[in-house]
Design goal:
The chain has 133 residues and is mainly β. Helices cover 0% and strands 50% of the residues.
């Protein structure tokens, strides 16, 4: 089973930046899409960004497009979320997610970048991001 460890959350003033990291322990698994979701108090969990297995395809929520950048380092099985121009509406618990499989890799999943939570089968513990006004 893949385990994810997140880091990088914290408190920042509006207009500031933070970088989240998520390291996956996945030596014997095939790791496909990696993504980030967030959940603010009293709100549903929402998609933030995702990246394909090769890193060549990315998707973003409209609310973060142009401000957030997702990337990954496959040698380290780690994904990153660079968050710039943060505003108080970005305050939430951010969770990383990974879609993976065991056994033979599935080639068609290498470009698959889902935006829905149920497509991911490993989740991080969540890290708090708080943006003060």
């Amino acid at each position: 089973q893949v385990q994810l460890v997140e880091s990088g959350g914290g408190l920042v003033q509006a207009g500031g930046s933070l970088r989240l990291s998520c390291a996956a322990s996945a030596r014997t698994f095939n790791v496909y899409a990696m993504g980030w979701f967030r959940q603010a108090p009293g709100k549903e969990r929402e998609f933030v960004a995702a990246i394909s297995a090769s890193g060549g395809v990315t998707r973003y929520a409209d609310s973060v497009k142009g401000r957030f950048t997702i990337s990954r380092d496959n040698a380290k099985n780690t994904e990153y979320l660079q968050m710039n121009s943060l505003n108080p509406e970005d305050t939430a618990v951010y969770s990383c997610a990974v879609k993976y499989s065991s056994g033979t890799a599935v080639p068609q999943l290498r470009t698959y970048v889902p935006r829905v939570a149920y497509e991911y089968n490993a989740w991080g513990q969540g890290t708090q991001v708080t943006v003060s006004s």
